[in-house]
Design brief:
With 305 residues, the chain is of the alpha/beta class. It has a single domain (2-302), classed as Inosine-uridine Nucleoside N-ribohydrolase, Chain A (Alpha-Beta Complex), CATH 3.90.245.10. The protein has helices at residues 12-23, 41-54, 78-81, 103-113, 127-135, 139-142, 165-168, 171-178, 189-192, 199-208, 212-229, 239-248, 290-302; strands at residues 2-8, 27-34, 61-63, 119-122, 145-149, 184-187, 196-197, 236-237, 253-258, 260-262, 272-274, 282-288. Helix 4 crosses helix 5 (127-135).
């Protein structure tokens, strides 16, 4: 059983990733930490609470950073995920509340309590992770692995021609994380663009799991329409679920070991490139058994109510 905390900005593919984790028998989901990105941090916190309640999970949610470390705040990606984060599904108030600790404080505490066991899976901007690293000098060594969805090594960007969105929205935080001594695995566009989820796949989720699969299908209409507006008619990339799957099934991916640095200014801001200093290597996932990953995802979702 792998102990995981997901740092998230839900977000439609975040919901897919969290529901996968809820169904996976090899994952112990210890908690969620919320971050700005697809939505504001307040909406992200609310949405994280909604998702764990919908999935019947009992785990804490911690509210994270409102803005990037150094850059001014960005407008949320409402054209991609909808104003409330879940496509056309309207806002709903969860019954639960976030814990009193900040996300960074919670991450530091959990990394200490589960030293050498905790796998941290950030699927939004890396601000909370950077703040935890700055809060506790031992944090990077206390976590077993940081398996993040973000970046691109050879594929190019998805928000600019250079940058993937999660890294772009706080490049300074990403640089703090990549420069740390943590064991980092980068599940970026090089592999997530190889795994597609189609309209028919969402229909199959709804048929197999009417409640939660149906919720994902309801979200998907808005998401797939966005992809069509940018000329992608064959489905949406399985971004965030791929990172969660990599936490427990790294053998389905092939990695290149390289030191990564993040460009923090200019038109290439947010680019994840080869570092020229003596930092440790990052496992950059370059190839994936896309059929196996997708089959695993669909199988787990079908186990949900």
């Amino acid at each position: 059983m792998t102990k995981i905390i997901i740092d998230t900005d839900p977000g439609i593919d975040d919901a897919m990733a969290i529901f996968y984790a809820a169904a996976a028998p090899d994952i112990e989901l210890l908690g969620l930490t919320a971050i700005f990105g697809n939505v504001t941090v307040d909406i992200a916190t609310r949405n994280a609470l909604r998702l764990i309640e919908a999935a019947g999970l009992e785990c804490p949610v911690a509210r994270g950073a409102e803005t990037p470390l150094e850059l001014p705040p960005f407008e949320p990606s409402s054209h991609v995920h909808g104003r409330e984060g879940f496509g056309d599904i309207p806002a709903q108030v969860p019954t639960g509340q976030a814990i009193k600790e900040t996300a960074a404080e919670y991450l530091v505490r959990m990394a200490r309590e589960h030293k050498g066991e905790l796998v941290l899976c950030p699927i939004g901007p890396l601000t909370n992770i950077a703040l935890a690293t700055q809060l506790d000098p031992e944090f990077a060594q206390n976590v077993a692995r940081i398996v993040l969805m973000g970046g691109s090594y050879e594929e190019g960007g998805n928000i600019t021609s250079y940058a993937e969105a999660n890294i772009y929205h706080d490049p300074h935080a990403a640089e703090v994380v990549f420069a740390s001594s943590a064991r980092i695995e980068m599940v970026g566009l090089d592999v997530t663009h190889q795994i597609l989820c189609t309209k028919e796949d969402f229909s199959a989720m709804a048929n197999a799991a009417p409640k939660l699969g149906g919720m994902l299908q309801d979200m998907s209409h808005f998401y797939l329409h966005f992809y069509e507006t940018v000329g992608k008619f064959d489905g949406c990339s399985l971004h965030d679920p791929a990172a969660v799957i990599a936490c427990t099934h790294p053998h389905l991916f092939t990695a290149k070991e390289v030191p990564i640095t993040v460009t923090c200014k200019g038109e290439e801001s947010g680019a994840t490139v080869l570092a020229g200093d003596a930092r440790g290597n990052t496992s950059v996932y370059m190839q994936v058994d896309s059929e196996a990953v997708k089959e695993l995802f669909m199988s787990r979702i079908s186990d949900l109510p």
